[in-house]
Amino acid sequence: MAPRVGLTTERLTQAGATLADEVGFDQVTVSELARRFDVKVASLYSHVKNSHDLKTRIALLALEELADRAADALAGRAGKDALVALANVYRDYAREHPGRYAAAQFRLDPGTAAASAGVRHAKMTRALLRGYHLDEPDQTHAVRLLGSVFHGYVSIEMGGGFSHSAPDTEETWSRVLDALDALLRTWPPAS
Fold first, then answer.
1. Nearest Cα residue to 69 out of 35, 95, 46
2. Residue ranges of the HTH tetR-type domain (predicted)?
3. What is the 3-state secondary structure (H, E, C) of 125-179?
């Protein structure tokens, strides 16, 4: 176990994110983190206010990590290539970091959300959608559609919902992305 020396908010947030990946985001508490560091819970309160504050920090970290990955994946891509790249960022991140992925869905208060990397996610998705020539409100509808489909598919897949039948989920994922691309190409213009 790590010694008390060197505890920082950043280190605790990283450890909390690792803990979330190991045991699930819902199971992350300041008490569990204190056990990991072999310190008293009170020792952590100078770095995090409570479990909600810790979870908020983990959520912000996850959103930042996802935004960085998305930006790297989207660089130089457009159209279906960009759509597939963004979708795969979310799916791969969820597979690699299930607790952090769950944290990225954590409800943030409006001020925290507005200052988070969630704003970058929306901007990148809107930039991707410019390749489909969507105007408002269709662009907003499409942002919501993509988020819903990506999150829904990934959540069901991670929960084992597709593991009991053929064909392979990779084939289905590819067809889902093909269908989204086709839909976005034919989306009716705003009236």
1. 95
2. 6-66
3. HHHHHHCCCCCCCHHHHHHHHHHHHHHHHHHHHHCCCCCCCCCCHHHHHHHHHHH
